[in-house]
Every structure is written in C-alpha cells, then in structure tokens.
Amino acid sequence: MLQQLVKDKQQSNQLPGLGAIVTQHGKILGATVSGERKKGSGILLDFNDRWHIGSITKSITATMLARLVERQVLNWDTPLKALLGEFDMHHQWQNVTLE
Question: Residue 51 in 3-state DSSP?
C-alpha cells in the first residue's frame, strides 16, 4: 500500500524520485522509494541511498518542537538556554523562547 502510494505520487507529480518512511514510537512500520536517483539516469533509487534534504530543516525542527509542546514536554515560552544547557551561545540568545 505504501509502495503504491509513493509510486503514484512520484509519477503524478513528475518527480525523478520519491521516498517515504512511516514510524511509530521509534519503530519503522514501512519504508519505500520510487523512481531514479537522477532524472534520466536510469539508476533506480535504493532505500539505503543518502538524501539531500535541502532547506527544510527549519520546518522539520518547528514541527518537532510543536509536537513536543502539544505533548506538554515543552512550552512555547521555554527559553533556548533551558533546551541547550551548557551550549556556548551568545548571551543575547539565551532568553529567546521557542515562540
């Protein structure tokens, strides 16, 4: 089911390749790839290929933090110094909150 969904999305969006992984409680429930490593190369993707995630780390980090707030592990008013502890950061950043 996951494999077909990824293949359909990869093809309908005309992507050279697409991969997906489904996890729950730290366990991989499913993972698959579809397409080529490089458009027109004929070299198929492999699940063990390394992926360049581009400039989406900010949105991934924001989503992760929002989920921790949702679970009440963190609060939006949590300062960076509480999260990063002894990390050497400029003093003006220490009281910046997640919000």
Answer: coil
Tell me: the pLDDT tens digits for 42-98?
999 998 998 887 888 899 999 999 999 999 999 999 999 888 887 888 889 989 999
CA terminus-to-terminus distance, the chain: 38
Report the run of H or E that residue 17 belongs to, with start and end: strand 17-24
What DSSP state is assigned to residue 97? B
Residue 65 near residue 98 (C-beta atoms within 8 A): yes
- Contact at 8 Å (CB) between 22 and 30? yes
pLDDT in the model for residue 88 = 86
Task: Tokens 């995630």: give the residue.
Answer: 53
